[in-house]
Write a structure and sequence with these properties.
heterodimer; A: mainly alpha; 8 helices; B: mainly alpha; 3 helices; flat
C-alpha cells in the first residue's frame, strides 16, 4: 500500500499530543490505585474507539461524496487548528501558562492519594478515570484519522490509502508515546508539548483551508504544493502575532513599575 | 444543552473563531451561488478565505489579551 506522507505526518503529530495527555492519566491511575484498573480502563476505551472508527470511517468513505466530505472536514479542521494555534500563541507570548504535564501529574497523584486507596482488585473509580481519559483523547485521534484519511483522496491515493496512512501515523505515535512513557516512568514531561501543539495547529489549519477551498471549487495554484504556501502564510502570521502579543505583555509588566516611579514626582508637584 | 456545549467545546470552544469561520463559509457560498459575484470566483475567493481565517485568529487573540 502506498503511504500518503503529508497525511501520515499530520496524523502522527496530532495523535502524539493526544496520546501524551491520555497516557499521563493512565500512568497516574496505575501508580496511585493499581495497574489492573488503569490498563482495564484503557483497553475498554481502545475497544470502544475501534468500534467507532470501524463504523464511522467506513460509512463516511462509502456514502458521502468526496467534495462534500472535503468541505465539511476542511471546516472542522480549521476550527480544530485555530483552537490549538490560539492556545499555542498565547502560551508563547506568555499570556497563558505553558501546559505543564508535570503539574497535572502531581495534581492527579495528590488527588488520588487523598482518597487513601491502594488496593489490588479492580477499582471502579480508577477504571472509569482511565477509560474516560483514553476515550476522550482517543476520540480526537479517531476524528483526526478519519477526517485526514478520508479527505486525502487523490489520483494516486485511494480512500483506503488515506485512512491507512493516517492510521499508521496514529498507531506509531501511540506506540512511541507508550514506549517513551514506559522508559522514563514519568508523564513525558520532557516532550515540548506547546511546540507540538503549535505545529499541529498550523498543519490542521493549513490542511483545513486547502480541503475546504477545494470543497468550494477553488483550484489552488501549483496544486498540492500550495499546501506549503498556506503553511508559510499561517506560520508568518503566527510569528507576527506572537511578537506583537509578547511586546504587549512586556508593556503590561512594565506599566506598574513606571507608575510607581512617576507617582512620587507628581506628589512633589 | 450539556451535549451541545460538550460538542461545541470539543470542536472549537471559541465563539469568535466559530463566527469568523461561519462568515467565511457564507461568503464563499454566496460567491459560488450568485451569478453577479462570479468574477470573484477563483483567486479572489481564495484570498478572502485565507484572510477570514487569519482575521478570526487575530480577533480572538486580541479579545483574549484585552480581557
Amino acid at each position: 500500500m502506498e503511504l500518503a506522507w503529508p497525511v501520515f505526518v499530520a496524523a502522527f503529530l496530532a495523535s502524539a499530543v493526544e496520546f501524551v495527555e491520555a497516557f499521563t492519566i493512565v500512568l497516574v491511575v496505575g501508580i496511585t490505585i493499581n495497574w489492573r484498573s488503569s490498563v482495564l480502563g484503557a483497553l475498554l476505551a481502545a475497544a470502544t474507539l475501534a468500534v467507532i472508527v470501524a463504523t464511522l470511517g467506513v460509512a463516511l468513505v462509502t456514502y458521502v461524496p468526496i467534495v462534500i466530505l472535503r468541505l465539511v472536514v476542511g471546516i472542522i479542521l480549521i476550527l480544530f487548528g485555530l483552537k490549538w494555534l490560539k492556545k499555542a500563541v498565547l502560551r508563547y507570548s506568555k499570556h497563558k501558562a505553558l501546559h505543564d504535564e508535570e503539574a497535572i501529574y502531581e495534581e492527579k497523584v495528590a488527588e488520588l492519594k487523598a482518597r487513601g486507596e491502594s488496593i489490588q482488585r479492580v477499582d471502579t473509580f480508577g477504571t472509569v478515570l482511565s477509560y474516560k481519559a483514553v476515550l476522550l483523547e482517543g476520540l480526537e485521534v479517531a476524528f483526526i484519522v478519519i477526517t485526514f484519511g478520508s479527505s486525502a483522496v487523490t489520483n494516486t491515493c485511494s480512500s483506503a490509502c488515506g485512512i491507512g496512512s493516517a492510521t499508521i501515523g496514529a498507531i506509531l505515535a501511540g506506540i512511541l508515546v507508550i514506549l517513551l512513557g514506559a522508559l522514563v516512568r514519568a508523564p513525558l514531561t520532557k516532550v515540548p508539548e506547546n511546540t507540538l501543539k503549535f505545529v499541529v495547529g498550523l498543519m490542521l489549519t493549513t490542511f483545513g483551508t486547502f480541503w475546504a477551498g477545494e470543497g468550494f471549487g477553488i483550484t489552488w495554484p501549483f496544486s498540492d504544493a500550495f499546501l506549503f504556501v498556506l503553511l508559510a502564510i499561517y506560520l508568518l502570521t503566527s510569528f507576527i502575532l506572537i511578537m506583537a502579543l509578547s511586546q504587549h505583555k512586556q508593556r503590561q509588566l512594565a506599566a506598574p513599575a513606571s507608575d510607581s516611579m512617576v507617582k512620587p514626582q507628581e506628589v512633589r508637584r | 444543552m450539556k451535549v451541545i456545549k460538550a460538542i461545541y467545546n470539543f470542536f472549537v470552544g471559541d465563539m469568535i473563531i466559530l463566527i469568523g469561520v461561519a462568515i467565511a463559509v457564507i461568503l464563499l457560498a454566496l460567491i459560488n451561488t450568485i451569478n453577479a459575484l462570479s468574477p470573484l470566483r477563483g483567486t479572489v475567493e481564495a484570498i478572502i478565505f485565507i484572510a477570514a481565517v487569519i482575521i478570526s485568529l487575530t480577533t480572538t487573540l486580541i479579545r483574549e489579551v484585552m480581557g
